[in-house]
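User: Look at the shape:
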Amino acid sequence: MHDSLAVVPVLVGPMQVLLAILPGILMALGGTLVYLLKPSTMKVGLQLLWRVKVTVVLVTAVVAGSVTLAGAVLPQRQTSVSEAEASAHDWPQFRGGLARRGALPGAAGPVQGGINWTFNQPADTFYSSPTVVGNRVYVASATGLSVFNKQGVGEIFCLDADTGGLVWRGGPSDYRATFSSPSVVGNRLAIGEGLHQARDARVVVLDLDRDGEVLWTYRTNSHAESSPVIHDGRVYSGSGRDGWYCFELEPDADGNAQVVWHVPGDRYPDASGSASVHDGVVYVPMGRWGGTGVAALDADTGDELWRIDTAHAVFSGPTIAEQANLLFVGMGTGNFIQTAEQAITAELNYLREQGATEAEVEAARPRFGPGGAVWAIDLDTHDVQWRFDTERAVLGQVAAADDRIYFGSRDGHLYSVSFAGDLLGKWNAHAPIVASPAVTDDHVYIVTENGRLYGLTRDTLRPVWEFTLADTGRFLSSPAVARGQVYVGTEGAGLLAVGSPASDDRDADTPHWPGHLAGPGQPGSLAAGPLPGRGGLLWRYPDPDDDNETPAPHISAPPAYLDQHLYLPIADGSEPGIVSLPLDDASRDAPTPRWFHPVANGVHRSPAVTADLAFFTDGQPGDADRHLHALDLDTGDVQWQHPLATGVAGRFVIDRDRLYIQDQDEHLTQLDHAGDVQWRQRLGRVVHTPASHNDMLVVATDRPAMLAALDRHTGRTLWRVPLADVPTTGPAVVDHTIYLGTEQGLAAHDLRDGSQRWGVGGGAVTSTFTMGRHYLAYINPEGTLHLIDHATGDVIATQMHAQPDVPPLFVRDRLVYLSRGNLLTLDLDQPDTARPQRWMAVGWLGEITAPLVAVDASLYLATDERGLVRIGRPQ
């Protein structure tokens, strides 16, 4: 990578605008300053100040005192920090160990959930990858980058892994924005400093017993993006053009770094990746044209033992699979920021700077074309055992697990390849992957360049969970998995801890959208990313035909979402039925349907979706010949049908292996996903969907008004309690609490016996209530939105003039609701004092006919005049 190509970006866009108007600003300021410095002007100002000197002194004292008092009295946001836990595992090198798995041994892999905590103050940008040891997370920040300050500012942070609380912050003075990631062994942390532009960056070692106090630093003659290795009391670290270093882990008697050996950069160009140390040998990558490859050095002396030249630059550090005696390296053209096409000019100019003739430069041009590969090298013979080619560069680490390796590529794919070099699986993320994967016993986790986090099964590479980390930015930080969470850094949104493991075995490895708004109590935004500051129209479906525009279809229920596809129910119009719409984040054109399945009765309820099937019911109560349908997700072909009684509501919900529906009057039925009835119980009228929770199923009936818990496997009643108020929604279960909407408001019941914990009488819940991390929200018939603490039942805030038939929507740290033709957002950081902000005027789109759904950074809403509308970041 050429020296002018930074691993992390420099701020552009707003800074370019500033630069464009800066001369005018400076001229205006200069003119004002000249005027103020005129002797006559200064004399008048001094005379005026002298006349009001007493007032000035008093005002100054009051302001200073108020600021001081505010800092002392006003509440400060604090996050709890628990005592440090002893850890059975160190993190001695980038991605944790020789296999580069990025996960603690035995770590449970998340397959559900959203943000558990965010750390974004005092730093909000992290290109460094987090290191987790015990209940502590270590990471370095990178803030303050601009065209004026390409070095930026960095700090090293230690956080509580469970809460995100700040344990300590440290690093040497003038520490710069950093890409290097920490390595931790015992009470020592080693890390590099700086980004690719740095020319005198330091290698740093901290004392963890003293809250990150600097033990020693060593200033190199280049950048120190490389993540160090701590091995047998020594630190091995790359330093860009300055080559590779070996230090004693402990300082000398004067507290200075002890260099054991140094091999210069002219022999080992672009020492940017992370080394591996195994059996007395240091394996190092080389990323510069003319010296690309991998080399083996004696760990004690630095003497070269062997080297292999590679076809492309090697930026990922060597991965070692001890059980197979193999070393793996990824390689390719381009870099973490630029594609091969974007980087080629700088690379060819570098050759010219090195004295190459134009003929030699042109002869080298094909070498910089798009391409990448992973090579497997025998550790004993040093022979290349096989080469696996990819269309684009492999920049992140290769992760080795059991009998295979996993790696991502700029070509947008995650690969699974056997130790013999055979392709075992390939999954298209539809976006470049430059960060390293994390691999647990059952799952693989990747972050794409556009900020999507995916969890996939290890064996089949089938996605089971996805999450949007942030709306914008570059995503260079690699995910780390520990304590049932994924930890990953972002640009501008902080360090995030997201996800949770499956609640039981049946919840693992099967992606699904449970039904109406993603299931009981869910916010309709399981796949939501942070919304942009304001919204704009992106597209409408069906796409209007200027020559012959047909009336918009009537949509009365929200779509389902899974794996970049919407499944849209159409109640009536020229073509009632259900349609599969593929989504493309980059496109502003209406999607072309993948398939359409017509239904004469129309589809008036929201569908549910698994990885293989789409489920829906047709018609409304009173219609004849109604069915529950299961369609093939890829083709839309009918797989099976199940008859429904004429008068039933037709609402249903699925979990990962069962479906629950009232298919006969007063009877609730469980079917498996193949359509076979497992049990049927007489309960009363179940108008709304039940809630599945572990081995229990919670059901509310309105005739009689009752709440019941059933054994999920047999349908046997576990307990049943009468309700004082008629339920108006289905139940939702979180942990050990059942939440239920009634004719009077919201109520919370104990999952163990159904006893009521609290009730809020804010008026009937006439549409779905939704749940966020800390709050519940609903709108009563009078249009009053209630925001309620779900732990205590306390009403945190109310807002007037909300539209009752469109439920509010939780999207990250904001609540979205419809009011007088506008979509408003309420900041949930301080909801009791925050004022709603208009996000987008939507009245001109027509009447909204179904609840909103959030996917990525967009909202989808159905209107009577324009069909399905996607709104998001304005063009």
The two ends are 33 Å apart (CA to CA). Residues 199 and 222 are 4 Å apart (CA to CA). The longest helix spans residues 14-36.
